[in-house]
Design brief:
Layout lengths: L1 H10 L9 H8 L3 H7 L3 H19 L11
Helix pairs in contact: 1-2, 2-3
């Protein structure tokens, strides 16, 4: 989560194209090697963020009668 948080913080400050993996690693407090082990690149970080948001939304709707698809 700290890598995603670091990326999102940088995205609020810079254009996507101006964010390097080394910047994300520095902000997250991890080595570049650790970041590369967790994610293939910036797009993979965005994809993981999106997946986590989707899971949170679906978990919040699990108690309703209709499914997320029906909404």
């Amino acid at each position: 989560a700290k890598i995603i948080d670091a990326f999102m913080a940088l995205a609020g400050e810079r254009r996507y194209s101006d964010i390097d993996l080394s910047d994300i690693a520095d902000r997250a407090g991890v080595t570049l090697a650790a970041l590369r082990e967790a994610y293939d690149g910036r797009f993979a970080i965005v994809a993981d963020y999106t997946r986590r948001i989707d899971q949170a939304v679906l978990a919040g709707t699990a108690t309703t009668e209709e499914s997320g698809r029906d909404r």
